[in-house]
Amino acid sequence: MNDFEARSLLARSARSSAFVLSAAFSTISGYARAAPAPATSAPTEEPATNANAVSSPATPPSVTAVPSPATAPTVTAQPAHPAKHPLPDEPLHPDDGRMGTHQEHWLFGIGLRENFVAHSGFDPFSTNNVLPQFSADAGRVLFASGQLSFAALALFDYGSVKASARGLNTSLSVSRVTAAAEGRYHFWRRFYLFGRVAPGALYSGATLSDPIAGGDQHSNSWTFATDLSLGAAVEFAGEARGASNRPRGWIGLDGGYGWAQASKLAFKSSGSDANTPARLEPVELGELAVRGGFFRINGTITF
Q1: Can you give the pTM of this predicted structure?
Q2: Which residue segments constitute the domains of the chain, with CATH numbers given?
Q3: Sorting pLDDT into bands at 50, 70 and 90, what band is 285?
């Protein structure tokens, strides 16, 4: 091989080597550009992007996923609103239609009783035959069946009058204590009629006063007495439902005849007999019977 052929072979070997190196470099370079793609692929980066989108308050998905705090209380408050705040026209305690405490109750009442005493023994103490009295009563309904009921009561009546007789000032005080049995019939829950029998005792205290002699004479006695009367009562205050235990207000009116035994008006001085003036010697004015027709009006509270 001559020198020329050697240089030609060397040149061809150099070109072959350069081609192989170029091909190898191209292959390695293409692999290097393709290899990072799996690390930066869309499936790997998209979750991070979605996570950022969810956490971001400015993106629309956050607004739709999280309920608005302004609307949530409105939805939960609406069902409870009618129970806590009833409508104005809705009664707090609807009528149950029962008689209840309209009929069965304790009672306490006060009022005024007017007695018309026609007995002659009453004339020295009054000019018009009228004895006004303060009246009080208390009791309890003991039995009720349908519209009918029965009550037991204790009554007290007290009154006094003044006048003059034989030139002397006179005064009379009368107290009546009775225990009554009362039958009632309710035509309506708030209205009933009643009949009453009230036996008891009557105390009368009569006084003769002489302003000149300066002495008083007294005549006191206890007698049996009884009242017979009819009346009616109407409820003007109280709840309609019978189950209510709140107090109720009633107005009652009754009238009848009050009978009492007669007692002697034998006046005696309360001073010493030795120093008693002649005009204050014992005086007798006959008998006194506080009996006659009467009527009474009273207000009663029941509970």
Answers
A1: 0.67
A2: 100-302 (2.40.160.20)
A3: confident
